[in-house]
Design goal:
The complex is a heterodimer. Chain A is an all-alpha fold. Chain A has one domain: Orthogonal Bundle (ABC transporter involved in vitamin B12 uptake, BtuC). In chain A, 75% of the residues lie in helices and 1% in strands. Chain A is globular and about 55 Å long. In chain B, the strands form three sheets. Chain B has a seven-stranded mixed β-sheet, sandwiched between helices. In chain B, strands 2-1-3-4-5 form a five-stranded parallel β-sheet, sandwiched between helices. In chain B, helix 9 links the parallel strand 8 (237-241) and strand 9 (263-267). In chain B, helix 3 (49-68) packs across helix 13 (319-337), helix 4 runs parallel beside helix 5 and helix 13 packs across helix 14. The chains are: A mainly alpha, B alpha/beta. At the A-B interface, helix 3 and helix 6 of A face helix 4, helix 5 and helix 7 of B. Chain A: Pfam families: BPD_transp_2.
Chain lengths: 322, 405
């Protein structure tokens, strides 16, 4: 990875970082923070699904682990929320490694892998919903105590910058994966696992690496969610909604691209939000636009929005290096 | 032809002037008759859309009534203006709508319906000291977090369950203690499992034996196994805590399989006191008891509202009178505050003794945000209608227990 690889990321993040300076409306900031949280979860999915071709339908397992760890460690054990947040991401990585070890070692691929991840997320949801430690169905409520050292901020802008910094860090991580030997091996696994194996790629190790990183990133999104909304329950943390969101953003934005998840999340949620503002009081109009955009993306832009921007004749690989 | 289509400098100027005039118009109108904006937050899309629509209807009726009868008296007849927000059945959307309402400059917010939405939305509103009246949200932490802006007009989980248990004993004792064994059926979410846990500790203390506790997910598409299990256990009482769809399914399956316990005693059930259920499945609904939010059947205003709603071909669910009353409560507070200032509204709510509601409550009195005058009632489906059987002060029918037939 060279300095030139980082430049586009730095430019995008720097531009976004100025948003709170111009937009003081909390409506917009609140929307952007939520979109960035979704983008972060989707970036996690993209590492495993976009680059590695391992389609997980259960990224809620990681998101929920991050959210619950962040919430429970501070509520039950009085831990500092910043530390709890980091441990949450590590816990997500651990859950990722575990699910990966169990399923990849058994040679699960394609739809079978998707179903197993879905099952893991559902099992975790039911456990979190039933256990007293997690607050059962009542969930965990983090006490409102606005102090920066408590990971709670007076202004929405501060939270926006933290979310943006994390998204930026993962953009760099994704760029590194794309450029590294590990990334090349990961793409090889996606394109043809048997061939990759024949060429000496340790496919189990590569896939485990991807799911671990993926788990950590999506868990960080969960931790942010808990810290921002200060409430998690089993359906929020381990619910299928987040698994779906994490898949949709990269598909719409561009699978296996660095900026795909961010572009997809902003496009899907941004357009929905703009429609809501424009259409006013028609309930559900934003959801219709969401659905319409999804159909359009799948029908006309199978490579995602970033794929549309690619010049005709340019190869897929070249586009990613552009 | 091309020339006509192409915008000239003059046409742009003309269009610009016209749009500026259109944009300036509402501001001009506003200056003419001052209005107070209030936010109505309800989930009108997603899983809770049915309840959200009921809530919105109630709030709209109250706002219309207040405006038609001369507006807010304390503010020289200023009108109430509704800013509606769709909480989309999830807490994030609820928070986003609160932010929008804040940007729109509302004086207060009413609604939320589901506990997770209420928990998130009240917290978002607390950042701006924006008064928030929770309509339903029964989870008790909503009012136990020390948020100064949050008020709950309806009873919470603790009040409802205490009331339900006391009246179950009263009902059973009054009939000569025919019920001894119980099967609990509950949805596995926040309210169902919380309730089941409470029943498991409290019922044995009151002389009931729990034969089994059966949990089911929401949504559930088939209740045959639950019904068959109930049949084999043959309990005197079934206590279900489920949402609308699942309970209707269970009641119908029990009817089809001729499972007839001595009573079905629901608590905060989504269907047991819902006119739609009674209308669509009268036989399955007959005799079912519930402990829930309800309107005061002796209040003429409540009956008039019910007539209005039914005349539109809609269902008079409890959300309608509850949200109607919450908006009235807020209007009363604004009137007494004599201003749309948030701090003054909060102060007025804290000292509220509001009585002009249509709920079976006493005088409103907020302690730490909870209305201590609030209470649920026990209802029973009798003769294709929903009757109040407890407490005696609001009852319009006698309980039928054990249910025969």
């Amino acid at each position: 990875m060279t300095f030139r690889d980082i430049v586009p990321i730095a430019v995008v993040i720097a531009l976004l970082a100025f948003v709170p300076a111009f937009v003081t409306a909390n409506t917009v900031l609140n929307f952007l923070v939520f979109t960035l949280i979704i983008a972060l979860a989707a970036q996690g999915w993209n590492i495993l699904g976009g680059f590695g071709g391992q389609f997980s339908f259960g990224h809620a397992a990681f998101f929920g682990t991050g959210a619950y760890a962040a919430a429970l460690l501070q509520v039950r054990f009085g831990m500092n929320p910043w530390v709890a947040f980091v441990i949450g991401a590590v816990a997500g990585a651990a859950v990722g490694w575990m699910i990966g070890y169990l399923s990849f070692r058994s040679g699960l691929r394609g739809s079978y892998f998707a179903l197993v991840t879905l099952a893991f997320a559902e099992v975790l949801r039911i456990l979190a919903n039933a256990a007293t430690f997690t607050g059962g169905a009542a969930g965990v409520l983090i006490k409102l105590d606005v102090r920066p050292d408590n990971f709670q901020f007076e202004s929405r802008g501060a939270f926006f910058w933290i979310a943006l910094a994390l998204v930026g860090a993962v953009l760099v991580l994704t760029r590194w994966i794309e450029r590294s030997r590990f990334g090349a091996q990961l793409v090889a696994v996606r394109e043809n696992e048997a061939a990759a194996k024949a060429l000496g790629v340790d496919t189990l190790r590569v896939k485990l690496g991807a799911i671990t990183a993926s788990g950590a990133v999506t868990a960080a999104a969960g931790g942010l969610y808990a810290q921002y909304f200060l409430y998690v329950d089993a359906n929020i943390a381990y619910g299928t909604w987040i698994s779906v969101e994490a898949i949709l953003a990269p598909i719409v934005g561009g699978l296996g691209t660095v900026f795909g998840p961010l572009v997809g999340a902003v496009a899907l949620h941004g357009l929905g939000e703009i429609t809501k503002l424009a259409a006013g009081s028609v309930p559900g109009i934003d959801l219709m636009v969401f659905g319409g955009l999804l159909v359009a993306a799948v029908a006309f832009a199978p490579q995602g929005i970033l794929g549309l921007l690619r010049r005709p004749g340019q190869s897929k690989g070249a586009a990613r290096h552009a | 032809m091309k020339n006509i289509m192409r915008p000239t400098r003059r046409s742009i100027l003309r269009a610009g002037a016209a749009s500026a005039a259109v944009l300036a118009m509402p501001a001009y109108l506003r200056a003419q008759s001052q209005s107070v904006k209030i936010g109505i937050l309800q989930p009108v899309t997603g899983a809770l859309a049915q309840d959200g629509e009921f809530g919105r209807m109630g709030a709209e009726m109250a706002i219309k009534e207040i405006n038609d009868s001369g507006g807010l008296k304390g503010l020289g007849g200023a009108k109430l203006e509704m800013v509606f927000g769709d909480a989309r059945s999830n807490p994030e959307a609820g928070t986003q709508e609160v932010e929008k309402m804040q940007a729109d400059g509302v004086a207060a917010i009413v609604g939320g319906f589901a506990s997770p939405i209420c928990l998130a939305a009240t917290q978002a509103a607390a950042r701006y000291d924006l008064p928030y009246i929770v309509d339903v949200g029964v989870s008790d932490p909503i009012v136990q977090r020390g948020l100064k802006n949050t008020f709950r007009f309806a009873p919470g989980f603790g009040i409802v369950t205490g009331f339900a248990l006391d009246n179950l004993v009263k009902l059973n004792d009054g009939a000569g203690k025919p019920a001894k064994t119980v099967v609990l059926v509950h949805e596995d979410g926040l309210f169902g499992s919380g309730l089941a846990k409470l029943m498991q500790t409290e019922l044995p203390k009151r002389g009931f034996e729990i034969l089994e506790t059966i949990a089911h997910p929401t949504p559930a598409r088939d209740m045959s196994n639950v019904a068959l299990r109930i049949r084999s256990l043959n309990p005197d009482l079934v206590i279900p805590s489920s949402y609308y769809g699942e309970f209707v399914l269970l009641a119908r399956t029990m009817q089809q399989q001729r499972i007839r316990p001595k009573g079905v005693y629901a608590v905060l059930n989504g269907a047991a006191s819902n006119y739609r259920f009674v209308k669509e499945f009268p036989e399955a609904a007959n005799g079912i008891m519930d402990c829930n939010h309800w309107y005061d059947p002796r209040n003429p205003k409540a009956l008039e509202l019910k007539k209005q709603v039914e005349a539109q071909g809609k269902v008079f669910a409890y959300n309608v009178p509850l949200n109607y009353s919450c908006v009235k409560l807020l209007a009363d507070a604004i009137n007494r505050a004599g201003s749309a200032d948030r701090a003054k509204i909060i102060e007025a709510l804290n000292t509220s003794t509001f009585k002009d509601h249509i709920m079976p409550y006493g005088e409103t009195k907020f302690v730490n945000g909870q209305n201590m005058g609030a209470a649920p009632v026990n209802t029973q489906v009798q003769g294709n209608d929903i009757k109040v059987i407890f407490p005696d002060t609001f009852a319009d029918a006698k309980p039928q227990f054990p249910v025969t037939g």
